[in-house]
Design a protein that fits this description.
single chain, alpha/beta, 29% strand
């Protein structure tokens, strides 16, 4: 079994708690399903948000899922690079898995699909 990083990103239309949590949850559920993850195999989850998202922590999305109570989660702010995608939530999930590196399914939703057009989700 290897330790792999699994990336994801999504965007919201508004800086509102419900939308941030719901879009984060949608993204995380897609990552979990696509990569057959179990919370016990997850080492940690790091969320980042752009500077225009301040209404809540996207990590709240994980606390809505059964079995994810003890997974270490942290939220941080992205570097405010000029011209970068706005209202964006990114995630890095580090997990133990049997899946080969090239077979990992990274997930990009909504406007975030433009971040990695080479990775179809």
């Amino acid at each position: 079994m290897m330790i792999r990083g699994i990336r994801g990103a999504t965007t919201v239309e508004n800086n509102e708690q419900d939308e941030i949590v719901n879009r984060s949850l949608e993204m995380m559920q897609a990552i979990i399903t696509a990569n057959q993850l179990d919370a016990d195999d997850v080492v940690s989850v790091y969320f980042t948000v752009t500077e225009d998202l301040t209404d809540t922590f996207p990590a709240k999305s994980l606390r809505q899922m059964d079995g994810w109570t003890y997974v270490p989660v942290m939220c941080m702010r992205e570097i405010p690079v000029p011209g970068s995608l706005k209202k964006c939530i990114r995630v890095m999930v580090t997990a133990r898995t049997e899946i080969e590196q090239a077979q990992i399914q990274h997930v990009y939703h909504h406007q975030a699909v433009q971040l990695r057009p080479d990775l179809k989700s």
